[in-house]
Structure prediction request, 93 residues.
Amino acid sequence: MAYDELSGMQHRLELDGRERLLVSGVEEVERFDEEEIVMNTTAGTLVVGGSNLHIGKLNLDGGELHVDGSIHTLLYEDTAPRGQGGLLRRLFG
Prediction:
C-alpha cells in the first residue's frame, strides 16, 4: 500500500469480481464517464476502464471511491513530481 505522508491516506484497491471496485487514497477525480474514470491517488494517477461504470460513492475527505459496472482495466500512469498538478493540468497547462 502506498502511504502519503502529507495527507495521511493509504492507497488501496479492492476488486470484487469485475463488478465492484473500492479505491482508497483518492485525492481528486479528474474525469469520468461510463467507460473511463481517471483519478489522482496517493500512489499516482489511476485509470479505470470498462463499461457501464458508475461512481456509487465518492468521499474525497476520506479519500474513498466506490465504482460499480463492468471493470476491464486498471492502469497507473507515470506520476509527475508533487506540485505539478493532475493529468489535465499537465496536458493543458
